[in-house]
Design a protein that fits this description.
The complex is a heterotrimer.
Chain A lengths: L2 H8 L2 H19 L15 E4 L2 E4 L2 E5 L9 H13 L7 E3 L26 H9 L1 H6 L10 H28 L7 E3 L2 E3 L5 E3 H8 L30 H5 L15 E7 L7 E5 L1 H4 L4 E7 L5 E6 L2 H9 L2 E4 L8 H11 L6 E8 L2 H6 L4 E7 L11 E6 L4 E5 L4 H12 L6 E5 L13 H11 L6 E4 L2 H6 L7 E10 L2 E12 L2 H9 L23 E9 L12 H20 L3 H8 L3 H14 L10 E10 L2 E12 L2 E12 L6 H21 L4 E2 L2 E2 L17 E7 L16 H13 L16
Chain B lengths: L4 H7 L20 H15 L2 H4 L10 E2 L8 E2 L56 H9 L9 H10 L1 H5 L14 H13 L16
Helix pairs in contact in B: 2-7, 5-7
Chain C lengths: L1 E4 L2 E4 L8 H8 L18 E4 L2 E4 L12 E4 L1 H4 L7 H8 L9 H14 L5 H8 L9 H17 L1
Helix pairs in contact in C: 3-6
Classes of the chains: A alpha+beta, B mainly alpha, C alpha+beta.
C-alpha cells in the first residue's frame, strides 16, 4: 500500500486534517520546537529540565499532562518519569500542570490511519508517526484513544533521564568528578566515595546548565526496570480510599457560589422564553442567568448546589426545536434509509476476494444487527468552577481537552487565549463525556454574571444524561456464505452518523471533510483472512450530536463483526474458537485466541443442559483481545458465571492497574450489552438517571480471570480494548446455552437476566 | 391497603400513627352484589402496582413498574427484603427509603414516609395473585392480622405507608380511587358479609 | 439545627428539606460523600447516621434528630489512621476513578459492623446498591473478604 499517497487520496478524516494542516502551516511549523512551558514562572533556584520535571530545594514535581479519569494515567506517567529519574514516585508532587501546546498527543490520531493495526510494515509505521504532525499543529493536548502510554512511553522516560543526567552534571561540577562516575538512587546523586547529594540540593546549580542531551537508545532496558512492569501502588490510591481526593466537583474556594442549569433537553434547540418568577424568591437563590453558550438554558446561582437545583426546577421554560428527529423510531428509519444506499456510501477499507460473485452463487445467510445510543454517565456529573477576573479567567475542571476549553472560554469572554488558565482536576470517570465542553461554555457565561466570584456549575444527573453527546446508534446488515465447514464469504455494511468530523467542528471550528473511520472501526480492521471479505461503511445524516464513547467505533463494531462471524461459524458447523483461530492471519492475535481457550478450558461451546460458553474477539487500539464468557439459564434468568480475558499489550508497565483496566473494560462492555440504552422521545433521552440506565451491578458481575500476553512489539494502551469483545462473547454464550441469537443491544430487551 | 403491616411493625420501629385521616362510617346495610362490587374496587387497589409491588411473596423481592421499566420487574440493585421484610438480613430498606415525614417527590427517588419502609407481611402476598385469592386472604382473620371489618378500616386510617400509595409523589401513578373511597369499600364489603365472587351462592341469602 | 459530624458538633441553618449530602458538602465542606444521582440509585453519598449506612442524598436534615451522629468517609479513617476496610481497599488497589469508593467503603464498613464474615451471596446482596461505572467489583469482593479477616483478627 502506498500509504501516504493513499491517505491523501482517500482524504481520510483525520488524515485529511494532517494534509490540510501541513499545507496551511508548512513543514516549518510542524518541525518547530515548542518552548518548555515550565520555564515561565520558575522561582529562583528552581530547575525545569523539560516540560515534565521540575525540581526545587523544596521537592520534586512531576508533570503528568494526560488527564486521569480513573484509568491510572497520572500514576503511569509518574512511574515512567520516575523509572529514569530514580525517585520514588510517591515522594514527588504529581500534577497535570498548566495545559500547553508542548503537551500535544502524538499518538491519538494514529488510529485514523487507514492501515489495520496488525500491519506493522515500515510504511504503516511512517504513516502512524506522521499523525503526530496534525496533533502538534492543532495543539491537541487530549486524553483518549488508549493513547497515553503509547504516546508517553519514550517521551517521559527521556524526560526523567535528561533530568537525572543534568542533576548528575551539576553534582559532577560541584564534586570535581566526571558525570560518568556518579550514580543515582531514590532522589540522590551518589559520588564514588559514597557522598550523597539530594536532587533538591542540586536544583539551583542544575538550573544554570543546559539540559544534557539524551536519546531513546540511552534509556534503560526493561531488564533494569525497578518500577515499570512491577506491581506498584497507584499514586492516588490512598486519597481515593479515604475521601481525600479532590475531584472537580469537590473544589472549594473562598466566597464560592453554586450554580445549576436547566438547558433545552433537545441539544442545540433554542430557549424561546422562560418564567423564573417562582425561583426568584427561593431560599439561597442569588441570581438567575439566561445562558446562550453551550446548550441554551437558564441557570441559577445560589449559596448551595441544592438550592440551585431546586430553584432551576421551578423555572418554566419554552424550548425551541432542535435540528434532529424527535423520536428513536425516526432515527432508526434514517439509518435504514442510508444503509446499503449508494448516496450514503462512506468508505470500504476491506474488500478481498469477490464478494458479489460468491453471494450470487449461493443463498447467503443474512442477519441485521442494532446497537443503541448510549450515555457515558460517569459517576461524577459534569461540573466546572469558573472565576472571571479583570484580565484573566480561571477554570477548574476535570477534562480531556484543556486547550480546546481554553480557546473557547477566551472566545466567549472576549479575552486572549493566554488569559485563560485551565486547572485540570481528577475526574470521577469520563468514558469520553469529558471530550465535550458544553458545561464549560455554560459555566463561563454563568460566572460572567458574577465577576470576581468563583462559581461552581454542577449538572444534575438528569441534566448530565440529557445533555450528553451519546455513542451513536448503529445498524449493521450482514451477508455470508459457508462452504465445506468453513466461513467463505463475510460481507457486512455498517451505518451510523458521522462522529469525528462533527466533534472536531464543534470543539475547534475546523471543518473536516472525507470519510469517517469510526463507522467501521472494529470491523474493517480485524486480523482475519476470509476468502471473500468485505466491510462497507455508510454514513447516515446527522441526527442527535454524538461523541466518542469508550472504545468508540469498536464498541458497536466489535459486537457486529464478531457475532456475525460466530453465526457464520455456526452455519458452517465449526467450533467457534477453532474456526476463529484457523481464520486468524496475525500471530499475536492467534496466540491471544489460543490463550483464552487454554485459560477457560475451552472444549466447545456446549456445556450441558442450559449452560454454554461463547468467545468474543476484537482487535482495537492495536490490542488483540479475546474473551470467553460462561452462562447458565436459571429460573431467575440468565446468570453470568465466569469470564476470561486475554489481551496482548506489547509490554505490561503497570500490571496491577493493567488487570483492573482489562476487567473494567469487560464489565463496562457487559453493563451496556445487558442493561443500558438511550432512546429518544420528544428530542430528549427517555433515560435520565441510573434507575433506567443501570449499568452492571455487583451481583450480575461474573468471576473474572485476566491474562496478559506480551508478544506484540509495541507498548499499547489498555483503557478500551477489553470492552468490544464483551458483548459478542456474552451473546455467543447465550446462543450456546439457549439457542437464542440476540442481534440487538441491550440484551435485556430479549432475555431476562438473573 | 396493607392489612398485616402490624406483624412487620413488631419487627421494626412502630409506625407513627396518623389517626383521623378518614371517616369510618359503615353503611347500615349492603347486598351481596354491592359487596362484590366493592370488593372488585378493593381488588383494583390491591393489585395496583403501588400496593402489590411491596405485597410480594416469600422470595421477598419488591417489584418495580411504570413506564421507565417497560415491564414490571424485580426492584433493581438485587434488593431483597428478607424474612424480616425490612432488609435486616442484607441491606435495610431504610438505607435508601429513609424515615421522614417530608415527602420525597423527586421522580424515581426512594419513596419515604414517617415510618420505617418495609415489605408487607408475607401472609399478605398479593403480587400476581388473582381476585379470589386476595378476597379469601383479606377476610380470613388467620391471615389478615386477626382483624374484623372495623379494625381493617381503622388500620387503613393508621398506616402511613399505605397512605403513601395514594400520594406517591414523583411521576408515579397513585393507587386508584382515594383512601376514603377505599375505606368505604372495605366497610361496604364487610357489611355485606365479605362475599367473594367464587363463593357458592346460598339459596336464601336474605334472612 | 445541630449535627455531630465525624465527632464534631456542627451548627446548620438551612432549609429543613435540604438533603444531608448537600449540607455536608456545600455548607460544612465535607466532600468525601459524593453526588452521583440524587435519587438513591448509586450510593456514592453513603454515610453512617447513628451507626447505620444511609444514602445522604435522601435524608432531609429536617427529619434528622437534633445532634444525630453522622460519620462520613473522612471520619471512618484517614491516611495514617486507616479503618480496616480502607486498608483492604488500598492493599487490593480497588479504586479506578474512585468517585464511588467513598460510598462503597462506607457501605462495606457497615456490612462488616453487622456481619463479621459475610458470604458471597451476602456481599452481592448488600453491595449491589452501590454503583461503580469503572467496574471495580472484583476487587470490592476481594477487599471485603480481606477487611473481614482483619476485623476478626483485630
Amino acid at each position: 500500500m502506498g500509504a501516504v499517497k493513499t491517505i491523501a487520496r482517500r482524504s481520510f478524516l483525520i488524515g485529511s486534517a494532517a494534509i490540510m494542516g501541513g499545507v496551511a502551516f508548512g513543514t516549518y511549523m510542524a518541525a518547530r520546537p515548542i518552548a518548555n512551558p515550565l520555564e515561565d514562572g520558575l522561582a529562583e533556584g528552581e530547575a525545569a529540565f523539560n516540560p515534565y520535571v521540575k525540581i526545587s530545594s523544596d521537592g520534586i514535581t512531576l508533570i503528568t499532562p494526560r488527564a486521569d479519569k480513573g484509568q491510572g494515567s497520572y500514576s503511569i506517567q509518574a512511574h515512567l518519569i520516575a523509572e529514569e529519574l530514580d525517585i520514588d514516585p510517591n515522594s514527588a508532587t504529581i500534577t497535570p500542570g498548566a495545559p500547553g501546546p508542548a503537551y500535544y498527543n502524538g499518538a491519538v490520531l494514529s488510529e485514523g490511519v487507514p492501515i489495520p493495526a496488525y500491519v506493522e510494515t515500515q510504511v504503516a509505521e511512517t504513516a502512524r508517526a506522521f499523525m503526530a504532525v496534525p496533533a502538534k499543529l492543532f495543539e491537541m493536548q487530549m486524553t483518549g484513544g488508549s493513547s497515553t502510554v503509547p504516546d508517553m512511553f519514550v517521551k517521559l522516560r527521556l524526560a526523567g533521564a535528561v533530568a537525572r543526567e543534568t542533576l548528575k552534571e551539576a553534582a559532577a561540577r560541584q564534586l570535581g568528578v566526571s558525570r560518568s562516575e556518579l550514580t543515582t538512587r531514590d532522589g540522590i546523586v551518589v559520588a564514588p566515595d559514597g557522598q550523597e547529594l539530594a536532587y533538591t540540593a542540586l536544583a539551583a546549580e542544575a538550573a544554570k546548565l543546559e539540559p544534557v542531551v539524551m536519546q531513546e537508545a540511552d534509556l534503560r532496558p526493561a531488564s533494569e526496570w525497578r518500577i515499570l512492569g512491577k506491581p506498584f501502588q497507584r499514586t492516588d490510591i490512598v486519597a481515593k480510599s479515604t475521601g481525600t481526593e479532590v475531584y472537580g466537583i469537590d473544589l472549594q474556594l473562598e466566597g464560592m457560589r453554586y450554580a445549576a442549569i436547566c438547558a433545552n433537553p433537545g441539544i442545540g434547540g433554542a430557549l424561546e422564553s422562560y418564567d423564573a418568577s417562582a425561583a426568584e424568591g427561593m431560599r439561597g437563590v442569588e441570581k438567575i442567568v439566561e445562558v446562550k453558550a453551550g446548550n441554551a438554558g437558564v441557570a441559577v446561582i445560589a449559596t448551595n448546589s441544592w438550592y440551585a437545583f431546586r430553584a432551576v426546577e421551578a423555572i418554566e421554560c419554552v424550548w425551541g426545536t432542535p435540528d434532529y428527529p424527535g423520536n428513536s423510531s425516526e432515527h432508526w428509519e434514517a439509518l435504514e434509509a442510508s444503509i446499503d444506499s449508494e448516496a450514503h456510501f462512506d468508505h470500504r477499507q476491506r474488500n478481498e476476494g469477490d464478494v458479489e460473485v460468491s453471494l450470487a452463487s449461493a443463498t447467503p445467510f443474512e442477519a441485521e444487527y442494532r446497537a443503541p445510543y448510549l450515555a457515558h454517565a460517569p459517576m461524577e456529573p459534569m461540573n466546572a468552577v469558573v472565576q472571571i477576573g479583570e484580565d484573566r479567567i480561571d477554570i477548574w475542571t476535570g477534562t480531556q481537552i484543556p486547550l480546546f476549553i481554553r480557546n473557547r472560554a477566551a472566545a466567549i469572554a472576549g479575552m486572549d487565549n493566554d488569559a485563560v488558565h485551565v486547572h485540570v482536576l481528577p475526574m470521577g470517570g469520563s468514558f469520553g463525556h469529558r471530550l465535550e465542553m458544553t458545561h464549560i461554555e455554560q459555566a463561563v457565561e454563568i460566572a460572567m454574571a458574577m465577576p470576581g466570584t468563583p462559581v461552581k456549575l454542577t449538572w444534575s444527573r438528569e441534566e448530565d444524561m440529557s445533555h450528553d453527546y451519546p455513542r451513536p446508534a448503529a445498524l449493521m446488515r450482514g451477508r455470508g456464505v459457508v462452504a465445506d465447514g468453513k466461513v467463505d464469504t463475510f460481507d457486512i455494511s455498517v451505518c451510523q452518523q458521522g462522529l469525528a468530523g462533527p466533534w472536531m467542528g464543534r470543539l475547534t471550528g475546523l471543518t473536516l471533510g472525507g470519510p469517517d473511520a469510526t463507522i467501521t472501526t472494529g470491523s474493517w480492521d480485524q486480523p482475519f483472512g476470509i476468502p471473500n471479505y468485505r466491510v462497507t461503511g455508510y454514513r447516515a445524516p446527522d441526527l442527535v450530536p454524538v461523541s466518542s464513547w469508550r472504545s468508540v467505533g469498536a464498541s458497536t463494531n466489535g459486537f457486529f463483526h464478531d457475532t456475525f462471524l460466530d453465526e457464520l461459524i455456526h452455519e458452517a458447523g465449526a467450533d467457534p474458537l477453532e474456526e476463529r483461530i484457523r481464520l486468524c492471519i496475525h500471530d499475536e492475535s492467534r496466540k491471544v485466541l489460543e490463550a483464552v481457550g487454554e485459560l477457560s478450558g475451552w472444549d466447545g461451546a456446549d456445556m450441558g443442559e442450559g449452560r454454554g460458553r461463547g468467545v468474543g474477539f476484537c482487535m482495537s487500539f492495536g490490542v488483540p483481545c479475546a474473551e470467553v464468557i460462561e452462562v447458565t439459564q436459571t429460573e431467575a434468568g440468565l446468570r453470568l458465571d465466569k469470564a476470561y480475558v486475554v489481551a496482548d499489550v506489547g509490554q505490561a508497565l503497570d500490571p496491577v492497574n493493567l488487570e483492573a483496566q482489562l476487567y473494567g473494560g469487560l464489565i463496562f462492555g457487559l453493563a451496556h450489552a445487558i442493561n443500558s440504552e438511550l432512546t429518544y422521545e420528544n428530542y430528549r433521552p427517555a433515560q435520565v438517571n441510573y434507575h433506567a440506565y443501570e449499568g452492571l451491578r455487583l451481583y450480575q458481575t461474573p468471576q473474572i480471570e485476566v491474562k496478559v500476553l506480551e508478544n506484540a512489539g509495541r507498548v499499547r494502551g489498555v483503557g478500551e480494548p477489553s470492552l468490544p469483545p464483551a458483548a459478542p462473547a456474552l451473546g455467543n454464550a447465550i446462543f450456546a446455552a439457549t439457542g437464542q441469537r440476540i442481534r440487538e443491544m441491550p440484551f435485556n430487551k430479549f432475555i431476562d437476566f438473573a | 391497603m396493607k392489612v398485616l403491616t402490624v406483624l412487620a411493625l413488631s419487627l421494626a420501629t412502630p409506625a407513627l400513627a396518623a389517626e383521623g385521616k378518614v371517616e369510618i362510617n359503615p353503611p347500615e346495610a349492603a347486598t351481596r352484589d354491592e359487596g362484590l362490587a366493592a370488593f372488585a374496587r378493593i381488588y383494583e387497589v390491591a393489585s395496583h402496582p403501588r400496593c402489590s409491588n411491596c405485597h410480594v411473596g416469600d422470595d421477598h423481592r419488591p417489584m418495580w413498574s411504570g413506564p421507565s421499566y417497560g415491564k414490571t420487574r424485580p426492584h433493581g440493585m438485587n434488593i431483597n427484603g428478607g424474612e424480616s421484610r425490612i432488609g435486616a438480613e442484607t441491606l435495610l430498606c431504610s438505607t435508601c427509603h429513609v424515615t421522614s415525614g417530608i415527602p420525597n417527590n423527586a421522580p424515581h427517588a426512594a419513596p419515604q414516609v414517617a415510618a420505617d419502609w418495609q415489605l408487607a407481611p408475607v401472609e399478605a402476598a398479593w403480587f400476581g395473585k388473582d381476585a379470589d385469592h386476595i378476597c379469601q386472604q383479606l377476610r380470613d382473620p388467620e391471615q389478615n392480622g386477626g382483624r374484623d371489618m372495623l379494625e381493617l378500616a381503622a388500620h387503613l386510617d393508621h398506616d402511613v405507608i399505605l397512605h403513601w400509595a395514594w400520594s406517591p409523589g414523583g411521576t408515579r401513578e397513585p393507587a386508584p380511587y382515594s383512601l376514603q373511597e377505599h375505606v368505604n369499600d372495605i366497610l361496604i364489603w364487610g357489611v355485606a358479609g365479605f362475599p367473594c365472587a367464587a363463593d357458592p351462592v346460598e339459596e336464601s341469602s336474605n334472612d | 439545627m445541630k449535627l455531630r459530624v465525624n465527632g464534631q458538633d456542627m451548627q446548620l441553618d438551612v432549609d429543613p428539606e435540604m438533603p444531608l449530602l448537600w449540607a455536608l458538602r456545600d455548607e460544612l465542606g465535607v466532600t468525601g460523600p459524593k453526588y452521583g444521582c440524587g435519587i438513591a440509585q448509586c450510593g456514592a453519598c453513603t454515610v453512617h447516621v447513628d451507626g447505620l449506612a444511609v444514602r445522604s442524598c435522601q435524608m432531609n436534615v429536617g427529619s434528622m434528630e437534633d445532634g444525630a451522629d453522622v460519620t462520613t468517609i473522612e471520619g471512618l479513617g484517614q491516611p495514617g489512621a486507616l479503618h480496616a476496610v480502607q486498608e483492604a481497599w488500598i492493599e487490593h488497589q480497588v479504586a479506578q476513578c474512585g468517585y464511588c469508593q467513598s460510598g462503597q467503603i462506607m457501605q462495606a464498613a457497615n456490612l462488616l459492623d453487622l456481619n463479621d464474615d459475610p458470604d458471597d451471596a451476602t456481599i452481592d446482596a448488600v453491595m449491589s446498591a452501590n454503583l461503580c461505572r469503572c467496574g471495580t467489583y472484583p476487587r470490592i469482593r476481594a477487599a471485603i473478604k480481606t477487611a473481614a479477616q482483619k476485623l476478626r483478627e483485630a
